[in-house]
Write a structure and sequence with these properties.
The complex is a heterodimer. Chain A has one domain: P-loop containing nucleotide triphosphate hydrolases (Rossmann fold, 3-Layer(aba) Sandwich), CATH 3.40.50.300. Helix content of chain A is about 25%, strand content about 25%. Chain A has 6 helices and 10 strands. In chain A, the strands form 2 sheets. Chain A has a 6-stranded mixed sheet, with helices on both faces. A 4-stranded antiparallel sheet of chain A has the order 2-1-4-5, covered by helices on one side. In chain A, strand 1 (about 25-35) and strand 2 (about 35-50) form a beta hairpin. In chain A, about 50% of the residues are buried. Mean pLDDT of chain A is about 85; it is low at about 1-15. In chain B, about 55% of the residues lie in helices and about 20% in strands. In chain B, the strands form 3 sheets. In chain B, strands 3-4-9-6-8-7 form a 6-stranded mixed β-barrel. Chain B starts with a helix and ends with a helix. Classes of the chains: A alpha/beta, B alpha+beta. Chains A and B meet through helix 2, strand 6 and helix 3 of A and helix 13, helix 20 and helix 23 of B.
Chain lengths: ~250, ~775
């Protein structure tokens, strides 16, 4: 972690390059109807996401970033439009197919960790390794997030940062192609936030996992290959960072 | 509507499954309570009104013969409000469509004035006309059993003379609410009937012109019944009077009181079990609600609501459950009661037996269950309102866990994470797990009770009529006869074996307690009527001394070795003493036995017999009955199979119906408890389960995590439940035990299997319902919400 790897400065992939995108999002709209009020959470999103990219989604609350993450992760279906993952249409997939998709391909990290309190760190990771096709061992996954020393602790015996790193280990133990992080540092202080982001960065670099991170915090955007800005359910800006800033140099 | 009440309404809407299941269990308890209490009220009210209106006597006495002129002397006895004298005797009947003879009791009614006491209620037809010949009024139950109507005629033998009786009416009498042979615990309305005839004609038939042989006395309010009885005895003694007795010894009154006592027991025991389960459930539901709403409580307090207001708000949840349960249980109880009351009509004959809902019981039911629910909730509410708002608004600290005991002792290394989650969840809240398990155990135990009652009946039937009584038929003579009477009976066609018996009507007295019944003398080596001990082993009659039903010994407060006084109510009414040699186990009615020669010695008589037990060749059955029907000395014929059938039809049906109600309720309760536990587990685990769904667990795998925990609790509950069920069965069967019928406690593998099946089926259904709800887990919301 301490040394910047060459990959950090690798040339970012250009849009429209000859590589096929992992996700192809076309004219996706998501409308929530609550009573008589219609909320357009997503409003005509077009987007391609490529393997091993690190994407930061920025936007005010209500801008649609969580909704985008949810439809990408197969937790929700768009109202219209299509999302294809490796050419397979997620918008027509049934519940079992979506479950299989999440199980095999997607890792989730949440703001509030969502660990199972009755299982130790190692066991929380084992939850996934037990059901995956080609997982790493829980120990490997936990050492990847520098948590080898505390893996037999229960969530209640860990700090927030440690709990979040267990969550990351749990998300990546199945070697997912996609890692979706919803405000992973939202509940953490700066220093702890940095260690968590470092873990995410390491996973992205070492495993080549397409990583999407939602944040309010514009400074975090510097760690990304691309920064996508949402407002009112629309993409208002996609910025490509010339170089990714190593997480350990970030401060806020 | 106050905003808090709006919140109440909406919260109830969200948790209606649990509220409904709790209310339904409570309603079952209340339904049973209200049904039983209303039946008691109905029977008591009807009985009291009937006894009063139709002037049921307080003291009764039979005698040999006294002149009508003695009547004023009886009326002069201090404390006597009214006296009725009459002629009362047995008759035998030759009924068309009945191969065997039947018998009955016939009573006189005054010719020229209305009866003072034990008045008749004429259901159909009219009273016999003055100066008419052979006109009778018959008891309704007997009439119903044969379809007799006014205008029909019956052949009967009165005092040795055959007569054709013309039915002019059907009637009820307060002395035959339970229309059966006096002293018999089961009605046999096809073979026993009650009759009333004009006094002059009946007295003529019984050679009692100008005389009477039966007295009924009404005791004035405030007067001592016992002193009236003593005085009646004194006045009647020279006229062959038997010992006077009160309502407490009156066959029909005893039977009715017995039934009321059973109902009283059932109205407490069973509902108490149901209501305590419901209290458990409402406590679990509401504790969970309060815990989930910890932050809302803090906000309410921050807004300025007092702890009292907040507490009251949560108490209202309990109130809503209780109110709904009282309403549903009340109406269900009334509906059941209305139906059961019509079944009582088969046993107890009243001019009208209408259902009186016990409204007071509604209030008691509401208060009882509200109290129980409040007790359950109060702890959680107090805990919630005690927290300072700022602290309560912070999320609860993450739950602490540790490796479970099984793991610490190194047994669970192979367990899956899901299984470990289940184990640790259980260990983390051992009390909650224990309570849930206890609830499930009670749910397992309840279905055992109706099973045990059903098996008890089956056992009783085969015990009483296969093991104990092996005769085909019992013949009783009109008057005790000599050895020749026995050989006459033995020589009837088809008789294979015959054993004499001697029945002596007596009052058995020990200390201040007494009971009127017949002492039966049997041959020492009796094979047709066997006396059995608690293990169903035959007991040999001692050469001297008395054996009696364990229940009778209990009633008298006597134990083996005690001296029992026998006040014989026959012949010269000698008073004798006999040692209680032991007790026997029987389940229907109470009896006392002596070796036949010992009894004869006591009576200072020779080879007297009162009747005989016979086994009869079934091929010659018709021939046998035809002969018996012609025999003038035979008073009645007890056919074992007929009695057994009658028991099945009457008491068996009654208990069968109660059993069905209980079993239905048991299933409802069992399902309610399991479903409720599953719903609570689901709401407690929803966040974990949603997380599992998000990270790729299938619906089935998530359901397995939830159900694993419940399955563990259910399995733990089963053995305890079987134990609890056995205890409940013992308690409730003891409560329902009466002098007439005492169900033995029979616990069979079948009852246990049924209980387990009921719980497992309820569990499966609940799990299926709850696992359907896993489909609706809020995957998105749960990820946003804080713990």
């Amino acid at each position: 972690m301490e040394t910047a790897t060459p990959a950090l400065s690798a040339p970012p992939l250009a849009e429209g390059s000859d590589r096929d995108p992992l996700f192809r999002v076309r004219d996706v709209t998501k409308i929530y109807t609550t009573g008589e009020v219609e909320v357009r959470a997503l409003d005509g999103i077009d987007l391609d996401l490529f393997g091993s990219e690190l994407i930061v989604l920025l936007g005010a609350s209500g801008s649609g970033k969580s909704t985008l993450l949810n439809v990408l992760g197969g937790l929700d279906q768009p109202t219209s439009g299509t999302i294809s993952y490796r050419g397979a249409d997620l918008t027509t997939a049934n519940e079992d197919e979506l479950t299989q998709y999440r199980r095999d391909s997607v890792g989730f990290i949440f703001q509030f960790y969502n660990l199972i309190p009755s299982l130790t760190g190692r066991e929380n990771v084992a939850l996934i390794t037990d059901i995956s096709r080609d997982p790493m061992t829980p120990e490997e996954a936990l050492s990847l997030v520098d948590l080898s020393g505390r893996m037999d602790h229960f969530p209640s015996q860990m700090s927030g940062g440690e709990q979040q790193r267990v969550a990351i280990a749990r998300a990546i133990a199945k070697r997912p192609e996609v890692l979706l992080c919803d405000e992973p540092t939202g509940a953490l202080d700066v220093k702890t936030g940095i260690t968590v982001l470092e873990a995410i960065e390491k996973v992205n670099l070492e495993l080549g996992t397409l990583t999407v991170v939602i944040t309010h915090n514009a400074i975090i955007a510097d760690m990304a290959d691309r920064v996508i800005h949402l407002s009112d359910g629309q993409i208002i800006d996609i910025k490509r960072n010339r170089t990714r800033r190593p997480v350990r140099t970030l401060a806020w | 509507m106050h905003p808090l009440d709006l919140k109440l309404v909406r919260d109830i809407g969200r948790m209606k499954g649990q509220m409904i299941s709790t209310a339904v269990v409570m309603a079952c308890g209340l339904a049973m309570m209200i049904m039983a209490r209303s039946l008691i009220l109905s029977l008591e009210t009807t009985r009291d009104a009937y006894y009063t209106q139709y002037r049921f006597g307080d003291v009764f006495c039979s005698l040999k013969r006294a002149p009508n002129a003695l009547r004023p002397r009886l009326a002069e006895i201090a404390g006597v409000a009214a006296v009725e004298t009459r002629v009362r005797g047995k008759l035998t009947l030759d009924l068309p469509g009945l191969r065997e003879p039947a018998d009955g009791m016939i009573h006189s009614i005054p010719d020229d004035r209305p009866a003072q006491l034990n008045r008749l209620f004429i259901r159909r037809g009219r009273l016999p006309e003055v100066g008419s010949h052979g006109e009778v009024v018959i008891g309704e139950a007997f009439a119903d059993a044969h379809g007799f109507e006014p205008g029909d005629e019956i052949d009967a033998t009165l005092y040795g003379a055959r007569e054709r009786l013309k039915i002019v009416g059907t009637a009820l009498s307060p002395e035959y609410v339970f229309e059966a042979r006096p002293g018999e615990t089961l009605p046999d309305n096809r073979r026993f009937g009650v009759f009333w005839m004009n006094e002059r004609e009946l007295a003529g038939a019984f050679k009692l012109d100008g005389a009477f042989n039966d007295v009924i006395v009404d005791v004035a309010p405030g007067a001592e019944t016992s002193s009236v009885m003593a005085e009646v005895d004194r006045v009647l003694a020279p006229y062959g009077g038997l010992v006077a007795y009160g309502r407490r010894d009156h066959a029909s009154a005893i039977r009715l009181d017995d039934e009321l006592r059973v109902l009283r027991g059932l109205s407490v025991a069973f509902p108490a079990v149901f209501l305590s389960i419901a209290a458990f459930m409402s406590s679990a539901v509401l504790t969970r609600l309060v815990r989930l709403q910890r932050e809302q409580i803090a906000q309410l307090k921050a807004l300025g609501y007092s702890s009292r207001q907040v507490g009251w708000h949560y108490m209202k949840f309990a109130l809503v459950i209780v109110a709904a349960a009282t309403l549903v249980g009340g109406f269900a109880g009334m509906w059941l009661g209305t139906n059961v009351v019509s079944v009582y009509h088969r046993f107890f004959r009243f001019p009208s037996l209408t259902f009186h809902p016990d409204w007071g019981m509604f209030a008691v039911a509401f208060a009882t269950s509200a109290g129980a629910a409040f007790l359950g909730v109060i702890g959680a509410v107090r805990q919630a309102v005690k927290l300072p708002p700022a602290e309560a608004m912070r999320p609860e600290p993450p739950a602490e866990f540790k490796p479970s005991l099984l793991e610490r002792i190194g047994l669970a290394q192979l367990a899956s994470p899901a299984f470990r989650m289940a184990l640790r969840n259980l260990e983390r809240r051992p009390w909650q797990a224990a309570f849930t398990s206890l609830g499930l155990a009670l749910a397992t135990g309840i279905p055992i009770v109706p099973g045990a009652m059903r098996d008890g009946i089956d056992y009783l039937l085969s015990y009483e009529w296969d093991l104990a009584r092996r005769q085909t038929v019992t013949l009783s003579l009109i008057e005790p006869g000599s050895a020749s009477a026995l050989s006459d009976m033995r020589n009837l066609p088809g008789v294979i074996s015959a054993e004499p018996f001697r029945a002596v009507p007596a009052r058995l007295r020990f200390g201040h307690r007494s009971r009127r019944l017949g002492v039966t003398g049997l041959p020492r080596d009796a094979m047709l009527v066997r006396l059995l001990d608690a293990n169903a082993h035959a007991i040999e009659l001692p050469p001297d001394g008395l054996l009696m039903s364990a229940k009778l010994a209990e009633i008298l407060g006597a134990k083996p070795g005690d001296t029992i006084r026998l006040e014989v109510q026959e012949g010269r009414r000698p008073v004798r003493e006999a040692i209680l040699a032991g007790t026997i186990t029987d389940y229907s009615g109470v009896s006392a036995y002596m070796e036949i020669d010992a009894l004869r010695r006591l009576m200072r008589e020779g080879g007297t017999v009162s009747g005989a037990q016979l086994t009869v060749d079934t091929n010659r059955w018709a021939e046998f009955l035809a002969k018996v029907k012609e025999a003038p000395r035979i008073a009645n014929v007890g056919i074992k199979e007929a009695v057994r059938a009658s028991f099945r039809k009457s008491t068996g049906d009654m208990i069968g119906m109660i059993t069905t109600i209980y079993f239905t309720f048991a299933i409802i309760v069992s399902f309610g408890v399991v479903y409720n536990s599953a719903r609570i587990a689901l709401s407690e685990r929803s966040r974990d389960l949603a997380t599992l769904r998000v990270i790729g667990f299938t619906h089935r795998e998530v359901a397995a995590v939830l159900i694993g925990e419940l399955a563990l609790l259910t399995l733990a509950a089963l053995p305890l439940g079987l134990l609890i069920g056995s205890g409940l069965a013992k308690m409730i069967i003891a409560t329902a035990s009466s002098e007439s019928v005492r169900l033995p406690l029979v616990l069979t593998a079948k009852s246990y299997a049924w209980a387990v099946i009921v719980v497992l089926l309820s569990s499966s259904l609940s799990f299926a319902l709850v696992s359907r709800r896993i489909h609706h887990l809020d995957l998105l919301g749960v990820l946003k919400a804080k713990e």
